[in-house]
Design a protein that fits this description.
Blueprint: H1 5-10, H2 23-28, H3 45-60, E1 72-87, E2 90-105, H4 116-128, E3 134-139, E4 155-166, E5 168-174, H5 188-201, H6 206-222, E6 225-231, H7 236-249, E7 252-256, E8 258-259, H8 272-288, E9 294-296, E10 299-300, H9 308-321, E11 325-329, H10 333-342, H11 349-355, E12 363-367, H12 373-382, E13 385-388, H13 390-395, H14 403-408, E14 412-415, H15 427-446, H16 461-468, H17 470-475, E15 493-496, H18 513-523, E16 529-534, E17 537-541, E18 548-549, H19 551-555
Parallel strand pairs: 1-4, 5-6, 6-7, 7-9, 8-10, 11-12, 12-13, 13-14
Antiparallel strand pairs: 1-2, 2-3, 4-15, 15-16, 16-17, 17-18
Helix pairs in contact: 3-4, 6-7, 7-8, 8-9, 15-16
Length: 559
Amino acid sequence: PEMSTAEAKQAPGAKMGSDQPTMRERYYSNVCGPECVCYHAGLPPSARREMSRALRKDREVGNVTGYKMDHFEKGLIFKGTFIHSKKLGELEVISDAIMGVRIRAQHHGTDKELGPVEKYKFWKNIVTTPNTGVISFIVKHESDIPDLMLWKEATTVHLGERFLIPGFVDTHTHAPQYRFVGCGRIPLLQWLETYTFPTEDKFKNLNFSKTAYPKAVQRHVQAGTTTCCYFATINTPASLVLCDAVQAAGQRACVGKVCMDRNSPKFYCETTQESLQDSELFLKEVLSRDNHLITPIITPRFVPSCSSELMAGLGKQAVSYDLPIQSHLAENKKEIEWVGSLHPDCSSYTDVYDKHGLLTHKTVMAHCIHLSDEEITTLKARQCGVSHCPNSNFSLYSGICPTRKLLNKGVKVGLGTDVAGGTSVSMLDAMRQAINASAALKFRGEDGDTTVEGWDQPLSYQEAFYLATLGGADVMGMAHTIGSFEVGKELDAVVVDAFVADSPFDVYEDDTWEDIFQKFLFCGDDRNIMQVYVTGDLILDRTGGSLKLKPHLQANNLT
């Protein structure tokens, strides 16, 4: 029998496993309207109930406004030149092309004949998986656009003399250390005691954090970094303030609450139990926010500041929550000697992490300058990624990472700014420094020191660009989502203008796109970065002659 809306809302739910819908579920099964293909997909009642619940949830939180076949709320089209890299050493320039990005996409049809179970899985995946900002097509002519009528109302960005590149991926940086970026060029361990620990401790004052963190995030965004792997501090509330700043900016990020329970100043150290409890509290809170752009990352600072009990516990958390891990490895020779004295039972620095369950396919290890062949083999076997931070390595007199050797051995490598060990938030600087570091190894080899494998193969600019985009995405486990312009990936991108009035370089009539691109890589800066997009959302815009950021970030004041 029919029920009123009020009665239907109060009706009890069906028993688990029952295929007979209740009055309440009959009411909700029409949430999409009778025209919705989900309702008429030939699904069993239990599947229809779960589908309508998912759709109703999307509607309640404002993610979806309609449920018609092949309908999306709006779209974004770029017309012009796109430059990206899909393979180490290869640069692809796609000129005079058209790229379509679906915004708030809903139902997508399929030509494949599906049975009831397959239909259920197909439609469940559609309504429960966010697909905002996904690249739908890259074509040369409008006539090649699939479902052209659906794109008639899309917003079109005419690039003209500008070009589009994937957003930069910074695989290692310290957000609180931006507070003293540019200060101190002393060896690592002395630098930690003099600058790092006293500054990071200040962030326990949340008013201080709410002022400092947005500035750090803002600088990364202005430099064209769409994805960042951040270290925060040991303070959990302050680390959540960093997540607030990242969310307000619209940036994609992994954010880690730092863990350290030994060999640290009394004013900046946790007990083992506190560190593990606060780490889990942080993980749960970030995950509960259900923001697919922000991922909590397990963050033991480095072996000297983490006990075996703490490292083992963090390794278990990574497994329990299926989360990535970040730390430092083999950055400084004195640090390596210290680790050896702390863990004489382990064969190497890398072995310490491995024995505590911290080396996985989701692990990002910064620096990795002074690794033995055996350690490199272990990193490759565990599918770990390496964040190469050349600016920091030079600034703190740490050494030169053998990037070519790591690449030749099949280790995933990306680039990091490592602020404030590194003196710049710009991934352009990271690329230049990476090229120069590899050149320095070449000079050393020509002078007779040929001990570093690959010394005679310095990085090309094409390779450095790959490491700053798709290579970094691979290190962070996001290569299937971002890093290059491919159909099905999310659009994280930067609009570059080589002709802006105050550009730090000049362009001439006979310059090719490759020439202009190289000039940007070696001579450009944030003045050339006109727009920044994350999942198709415009988060920075300079096209009007002034800098426009997301409102909360612009205010530099978070609640």
